[in-house]
Amino acid sequence: MNFYKRLYKLFDIELKKNLVYLQILFLIGAVFQLLSVFAMASFITALTSIDSLDSSKILLYLYEKSGADSTSSFMIILGISVSVVIIVSNSFLAFMTWASYSFSMKIGSFLQSQIFIKYLNQNFLFFSQQNSSVLISVITNEVPRLVYMAIQPMMIIVSQIISIIFIIGALVLTDPMVAITSFLVISSLYFFIYSSIRERVYKNGREISELNEGRQRILTETIQGIKDVKLRHLETWRAEEFTTLIRKMMGHMAFNGISADLPRFIVEAIVFTSTIGLSIYLFISFEKTSEAIAVLSLYAVAGYKILPLAQATYRDLSNIKANSSVLGTCEYYLSMSNSTDDKSNGISGDKYPIICNEDIEFRNVSFRYPNQNSNAVENLSFKIRKNKINTFVGKSGSGKSTALDILLGLLKPEKGEVLIGKTQLGIENIEEWQRNIGYVPQDIQLLDSTWERNIAYGIPLVLISKDKVDNALKMSNLYDYVKSLPDGIQSRIGENGCLLSGGQRQRLAVARALYHNPTLIILDEATSSLDSANELKILDMLASLKKEKTIIMIAHRESSIRASDHVIQLEDGKLSN
Description:
By secondary structure, the protein is α/β, with parallel strands linked by helices. The two termini are 66 Å apart.
């Protein structure tokens, strides 16, 4: 019940309405289950007492109302009627099952999209503190697991419990003592078994979540670093690591699966043994054999319906217990506050205008990452010249990337300010500022698509401007090459640009940055992996671009530093002389 309440709190209005409609379907489904039980029981009773219909008031009533002129014709009418009831009942139950599964899928879609939106609404610092494999695993592994192994069973349980209550209620009206005793025996058996394994399956469920994250991490690290794996012959190590983890996970899943199905055999043995005892009791208690058979038929058909429902209810409860820990993970990510560090909060950029084609100044800027003892950058004060190539240099850990992330608006200074011309950079104008930046990362994320889609990254296909694509290709010195391809800008570049050379990848990154015609181009060690010839081409291209744009880059090579107009050297997070 607690699981149900916690899940319900996560629903939006539409899901809550759909849940109410589903409960109504469950009630109707329970009525159909009950009707099918009575229909089958009546038919079996009629078969066994066809020559003495007057022994059963219900059968006599049905016989009189049917208009049949003989017992044979009555049986045909009754058989057809029972068949119709069963067909209609099962058809509705099939529709109800479809509606239940469809609703579960809606919940899964809702949770996945909402968690992903929560991710996107976090600031840049959040992602630097998280393991990407864990974030991906929550959406791709954990939420589907919650849907298939907890939410879907929960929906089915509600239907099953309602049906069981209706059928047990009908049996109580027939013979209260036998019905209540049977119910208490079966429910006690399931309760005892469930109580003895519930903590183990819950613990296994938590470990499965952790192992899922580990599996995602190993796969991601191995595939992304496959070149290193091959060169260093690490295939065996990676395979053993993955196999050990997956075997442990499958062992936990096997235990949970067996725990969910094993009680069926115990309960069935007890129930069938009890049925024999019930048969003897009924034949002793009733004077007429037909009356005993009528009651026994009702219990037999009811048992035929209840036993699978009871076993399914137990199995679904076990699955919910084993996988309910995932709900806590979903609650954690959905409860995260949206970041306001890089949002304008509805404040118009026109009220706080920013002129992007100006000198940029850092004034006493300091920043410290969470859980660190010292500042990444401290009291940084320098200027970035407009329409010049400005280069950050320094050893690893000197603060270059942090300073760049502050300039990009991804990190907020703890002290000091960044000025664009005479305007302070802040949440009031950060979006306008970022729209004027063309960013070229060291390792660009490329789509397995066309040149056009990669240059106009994030733009819907129908809104892509061919003129902007062509202009970006010209400025990045790729126009002639791309136009010479058989399909031009519609040519595919392969997965992660596997059909491109290193130089072409980086110039494509520059073309993407230039698509929106920004006033500021930032290159984060974009030439560090290129050979001298390709680096020279990039530097020549930047030299032509600085006439209209301000260029900022992080560089280590002497050739890149010599091509710069203004060098900013950092050491231990401070400006170096």
